[in-house]
Protein 1
Amino acid sequence: MVRGSQCVPVIDVREPERRRILAALDTLGDGRTQVVEVVGEPGMGKTWLLATLAEVASSRGMVVLSNRCTESRPNALVRSLADLVCTGSAGTGYERLFPPAADPPGEGPHWPGLNTGEGRDMVFHALRGMLGGPDPRGVVLTIDDFHRADVASIEMIEQLVHRPVEGPLLVVIAQRPRQASPRTRGVLAHGVELGTVSRVELRPLTPAQSAELAGLPPGDPRARRLHRESTGVPLYLMALAGELRDGRIPEHLATLIMDEIGQLGPCESLIVAAAAVLDEDWDLETLSAVAEVRPERTREALTTLTERDLLRPAGHSPTYTFRHPLVRRIVHTTTGRAWQVAAHRRATEFLARRGAPAGRRA
């Protein structure tokens, strides 16, 4: 967080993980593909770690491409490899290998060959030729948010794991374990067994690491409170430390935490806002009443929100909760005031009809 006016980078408290991932750069000269999986819950520092790797690799003169899987572009790995083999940089190679066809009415762009083995073989053939060429520089490819990857990207990782390309290639993917597909987890786990995949797991910070990141002495009661309230998640800890210092959560950190909320559809946004009003564990019926959304639509929205890991089932009960209290608090403070007041009234009335105790209604 801050020591005086200086920011303490997250990577400072991730030095063991940083050393492990940078060690992969030192072995690029061995001439074989390496795949590294960086795994951790939201806010654990995966993106910072990838950015650090890319910066160091670039300073060593390596070819570096960084990309991110999104809902609109889940094929980030395919695009990056195609860009690499065609141009050595990002931007045009994918379109050369997979030129856009005429779009059917009402549908998004279609990329011929993207989901075919022939198309992927085309990329791998070109990749082998490029890595076996006269340029001795290593190639580093980082893909963030791989839990959103499409089938083509997963199959490319599978091919890299089982049929490594001869040449100095390092592919580093970062993903959230709860949202990664079973197939992706299985492919990478098998790669660990084969020795073609290394796994770097980002765990919650220790109390000492939390104090260091917050710029506080380890025994400071504020450091202990920040560690407890953040549950050791660096992003949440920095946000809470900023609030402790300035009286409010820094805007750029709140934006990062709210990033996924902004990508939700209207119904899912209503359900999240209603969940923030209810605060504690709540079930589908209560949520439906407060959001004024039909139960069947509420059920669909809950499925989407749990898949995104914004909401989580509360143990084995039929209730749900936010993945972290800070996410709930930021959602609550950014919801429109007029809607929020009406939602609180609906919550109070519904809980009263259920016979909830006065404390819960309050």
Protein 2
Amino acid sequence: MTEIYLIDGSALIYRSFYAIRDLRTSSGQLTNAIYGFTTTLLKILKDKKPEYICVFFDLKGPTMRHKAFAEYKAQRKPMPDELVAQLPLIKKITELLGIKYLEKEGYEADDIIATLTEKFKKEGYEIVIVTMDKDIMQVLDENVTILNPAGWKYFQLKDFIKKYNLSPEKIPDIIGLAGDPSDNIPGVFGIGEKTALKLLQTYGTMENLLENLQSIDSEKIRKKLLESRETAILSKELAILHRNVDLEVKLKNIKISIPHIRELLETFEKLEFRKLAGQLKELNPSITNLYSQEDLLTFSNGESVRMDELKSSPDKYRELLEDEKTEKYGFNLKNFITYLAHKKISFKNPSFDFAIARHLSGKVINESNVSLLIRQYRQILRKLDME
């Protein structure tokens, strides 16, 4: 059966921002949220190879829940400016990977995910929701699975029943009684999840529980429920995900499209995500020659050699490599120099390193003609007084 991957983008970027501390480019640009988010997307693309995938973001501004309860998520600080600054690149990379993203004013990402889950499971598809949030568990069923990117573990309907001894639609009832500190949903003061589960396993729903307070043995619990009746009802309402958000989304709209490899590699280069650039090439073997000059060592006599070829037969090029009159050009020449040193070959006259030129200039120039590439970089570096 066809799988559809629905990803809680907002949860991912927050987790990445706080889990990866102070990751910056050499120029000081903070990239921790971008890196963590992109790493997760690439892993999903590599390991799961989804045909249909969509990312969802929260928009700034009040939602339906804020209108119902002014204190909803009031304990959360506004999104840090350093995270806000990374959002445009996160969304750009999502699109360049060929993945659609959705957001809707007045609703949270979870509401949109719940709506599309309801729609697509009715059409007979398997749904995999990528998130760490607890409230999304209320949409679990035989055709809906949750994948937690924190440990890459699946959580299925059978796991929920084993853990809670309730059906997933009881999540709002659990939150109505026990509250949810992460969203500032109060619940009933003094009742935790353990007590809430016990009560719901006996009474079924929170409404039934509140209608039969006289049958509760514990006077203490009975009093708490009586005093917090309205708060419990409101808390449950806040926890219920909207499954009828007005969206015009068809399956074909979230089919993954051909990634914009050149722009992705340029973006990764500027962000200094060299490891991710390598992962991108692993995902797309057909692009190995897109930046073939990065794997080439070029000599001033016009000859060029690929790194893999140089490794397989270094002695074949010993004379050129050790010739002090022959200039050598390439990306990360240090890699060539150190490798050849182990082979007892002395690398002479390293003349121009494009990786260093990119770093100093902040420019990624796509040019296959090595002479023209050197000329363009030298013009830029001369203007910057760094030639």
Protein 3
Amino acid sequence: MHTTRLQTRFFLCYFFAVFIPIMLMSSVLYYNHNAQQNRNFTNEKKISMITEQSYLENQLDSCRNYYNQLKSNYELMLLLNGFYNSEREIVYSYNRQIYSLLSGIYLYDANLNGIQIYTHNASLFNILKPFSPLSSLDLSEKQYLQLTEGFWHANQSTDDTYSFYISFANALMTNSFSVAEFNYNFNIFDSYASNLSDSSIYVYLNDRLIHQCNPNQYSSEYLKQYEQLILSTPNDSVRMYDNNGLCIISSIPLQNGAFRIVKVEPVSTGTLFHRSFILNALISGLILIIASILMFLLIFKPLKNIVKLSEHINQQNTHLLAPYTGKVTKDETGDLIRDFNQMTKRINDLSNSLLNHEIQITATWLNHQPCWWSG
């Protein structure tokens, strides 16, 4: 059966009135759903990073707790101020309180490599191992100015450790100037990275890379694209620099911006949005199927009957018309078919009546004509 112009118009109407609007609606819903998922995913990641930031801050803040313990130790303040003169008094004072305090700190904190106290008191650093001459402390003028509040510094050593430096300030002993160094290893960051085996962790201190956890070539090259942007961005809050590609790269500031923990986390686009795409495709397909069935039942089937009726009429080539024997629906199309069949019956009756009348006239005329053999 060939396609009529009426059917062509129907399919065009169906395409522009049903198919395209449903596809557009589906695209809008999919975009909005993905955007919402992306926002939720970003918020969840930021909340997770804030939790990680709090955990790492607590680990690094331990140095200030240890500093406060040392600062509040009266015997240590007496030693630093030179209150004890003899070697016996110095060793006795150290063994009585300070040694147990330092031993307890080392015992319960595996992140700490050691505590060193720099002082002018030669009697201390010549006798006791935890003390060193202040002259051996190689700091810049800017760093000396930061000693009151304390600062973090990456050590240029084989192990590439990092330390927190802070001076002792005591109003009762203003003549003494001592600096405490808390030397840390990277257990804090290695322990943090052990729970993120799929992520590459890069630790920056004062904008210098000092440690890497779970690095790989792909994440390192991905980091290069954003490293300058990250280092030039104010380090005042957790940030996500890219969460639309195959990786999420984020930055977690620590210790008032001294540290930057840069995390490169691989993310599969399918993992994020595959379920959304499947759900959207199923909903759109279901709506399209339902709309198509309704269009077929409400319009196409009656239209098909009209097309068949038209074809049936075009096939009539005799003086008698054949009635349409197809399905008669209970709508205007059915009324049209019934009217056509009634018209066909009336036309056929008229044709038969006219034919019979002509036959009668012909027979009467023949009966009244004289025969040629009669006289």
Protein 4
Amino acid sequence: MYKKLVFFLILAFLTSSLSIFSKQNIEENKRRFKLAQSFEKIGEYKKAFEIFEMLYAGEPNNPNYFGGLERNMLNLKMFEELAAHYNKRLRDGKFNLNVLGRLGEVYYQWGKTEKADSVWNSITETNPKRTVNYSFLANVLMRNRLYDRAVEVLLEGRKILRNDALFEYDLANLYFWKREYVKGVKEYLKIFRKNPKTYSLVENRILGIFPDDDAELDVIAALISEEIKNNKNNQLYRLLANLYFINREYSSAFREYINLNRILNAQGKEILSFANRVLNEKMYKNSAEGFEYIKVNFPDMKQITAACYGLAFSYEKAGSPAEDEGRNNYIFLKADSDYQEKNQYLLKAIGEYEEIIRKYPDTIWAMRSYLRIGEIKLNLTFDPDGAVESFTKIVNLSRDSMLTREAVLKIGDSMLAKGDLEQAEKKYDEVIGTEPKNELYYQALYKKSFVNYLNENFSGAVEIANNILMQQPPKSKIYNEVLELLMFIEENEKKDENALREYVRAEMLI
């Protein structure tokens, strides 16, 4: 009994010791593995290789260890040793696609292209009826930027397996990488034909390309059109419309949106979507065409008021100066033919806004239309009296709204344009007295400062400007304008106050 007890105690001790040793060994290997990874990250490949070599010798079946070993042998260009390593793995085991692929890569990077081809060819030759072998080899070739060869392998696979529907995703991606967009689109259309649920993927890929010229775009569009005839899937109409849109072929896109709207019986909603998108692109003549189509063909649609407003706004923007064209330059171009064309668009805009006011009086659309007419007359057709009349209509429609207070501010601007500084300041004070401290409030405050400047009350202008700068962050819209006015006054007042007064009188005349 005593001997048995001693035996079990010794056995327990040894088991415990081995367990502790095993845990220590595992923790040590983890530490070494992390150290090797760190060396590899900073480019110390030799040190990383030595650690991985030791880890691999202890656990040759650990994928982290043999993966690290092989990576760093490749980093160190140990091609001969790595080739021998892979050949040994092939001799010791069964047919292994991954090892064959890597062995071919070693030979290829080593410069032994014939040996690389021989190894890679064996992947498909060993079992030519196995689909996965072609996909695997193509991915290996793509990894080594051998795109032409990858295409050849996949096309060969289709031929041998007698299945033209294989490898669409791989071929589509390869063709796009090679900028052979027509071939790529053919493959993506096959994918969609097989599974319509892939539409989002197909659309994202096709709309992500930019054909090299109009001829290539026409061929791609023709492919989609032909697919529409055979497939009859409504989503393809949208794909074609969006393809034209993203390539800035807005007239063609509009034609396809009309088709899409008809096929879906969308009652103008698809046309409205097109018009709003092209308006955001600042292609105002194209957006006007879209909104006009809705107005004529879908007068009873729910969003007709918004469409009519969009039409008027499109005409207004088509008749306004370009963003890089100063308003002052525009003023002095009245005799220019470009100005005459723009002015025709402005007159059309006013006519459309007035039609909204007649059809939808006492609505927010009427108030917005009065505001736009006032803006046009104040800033572009140079009719401050007409602008005051239009802005006053808003005030009469509603005494308490954001648009009302904006209209009061604009009346002040119109009075300023007429040279009536007293009335202008009254309107700005009205906004300041009723508006919370928001953007409109600070605009009115800045303009009050400017009126003081024009009245040659420089101290009053400076005081107001400083007050704004103390309350507004430097990133605000108005900050730079206020700062510019303040610096101009202070610098020139110090130099010669009389000269500054003469300058202000000249500015008043302008």
